[in-house]
């Protein structure tokens, strides 16, 4: 028998930093509400399913957090405030441009009048300056809140708290659920306490994670604009699965993408139609990002959604 | 029946970039041999076990790559050349100091004579300068080679190639096997081709990974100084498991550590004794790193090992 979402929350205690995050979320949304801002919740990165209480091993979902972190920058550029709810150590907006050794290759130390100074190499200066100025502006304007999760259970607790904070914004909130959330988990009471011994090969029995879109759409943020994602590796299933989800949960859009081509093409599936967005190889090579087009389309659709829902009232 | 290591290599094809990495490893070691350098192979980060051929989901091992990336810096500081074999996107030496948003918080843009310049905030300048200079020096001196893996199979292919390259250094090579390698895997022919459907909860059957230390010690680098790691969550098993490994594989040292206290205490287990290294909370708060002490002890032991093996010849 599958677990219900009520059961899941009843059986998994909230994460340690939960109260603190709940307050951050609530006060951030209140400040945006006062400024009459639209707010998008972007979820990003994969969730883990621990195989042991003292976790050494876990099942993970493939996700670097690219979709979410890139989209966040474009939402901010378009005037939205963003709650960026992301997997710890996955990509973050702005800093994603300077991963790993890249930073050290961008700078140089020079001697001037016997004093060493650090300088940015000329070819990187403009890019670094641009990103830095945007980042500081966003911080100064209080338009970005970042909160982190690692496990599936942490994700689900944080997601509900974010929804409860956002509900007061009504149709001005977008939920952009780009995180790669596990479909399966191991119930807490079946977890091994210590590292699984390697004396014999274990069998891991997984349970289905309750479909959280159901209470999210119908109970937590019933007036918000909700966008979910569908990632597949089998082209034949992609659009039908996306449309099934839309019919089942009655939310606004599903962004359908294939694992292999997700940076080059997505299909935005709505009740009305399938809308394909794609980049040419030439555009990709120039560094254009498909998230810019996705966000532009969404903002249009969100605007139409706000107008039509206000007409109804 | 458990797979043998020969079987594993026979059934899993080499990764795509394997030939290229093989050449990099071979030529790097040859250059060090000419300079009469000691070389350490540091493995770092966790391996993944894909659950699907088109991988969306995988089982992963907890590891940020701290032990390996930090130790690499200390080996370099002590004159060793290092092959840093690490999990893609895990921590790397030097750049590990500037993770995530940290960089953007370290710099500022100032206006001078109508020109914008990027400057490092004074409180970070010394640290950044020091790390940058070390990094450039290491690159200029050709003392560091970095190669990456993601899956268990990529790790095993790369490890054997590194060993084969290092064999010619004889007792001048250290193997410092800090990577968190999976004990289990799903045989390639039992993998699902596409993303596992979430219509029913799956059961995952895992097989034991062949113990690669056996051929490594007895066949691939029989004259090298080999150090393995043992991570446990149950204190009662830690030392006995480390000692069992040492008796079974006949290598030089096992570094035993508990998941919960691994940054504060390790036990270096040798045929002769157990040697505990620990940091006080005060030392930890000051930013001291236990890897510095581990590396110092290892270098001493490696020196003794070289002298005693040369006496035998």
From TrEMBL, chains A, B:
Residues 167-282 form the DNA/pantothenate metabolism flavoprotein C-terminal domain. InterPro entries: CoaB-like_sf, DNA/pantothenate-metab_flavo_C. It comes from the Eukaryota. It holds the Pfam family DFP. Coiled coil: none annotated. GO terms for molecular function: catalytic activity. GO terms for biological process: coenzyme A biosynthetic process. Signal peptide: none annotated. Transmembrane segments: none annotated. Belongs to the PPC synthetase family. This is DNA/pantothenate metabolism flavoprotein C-terminal domain-containing protein. It comes from Melipona bicolor.
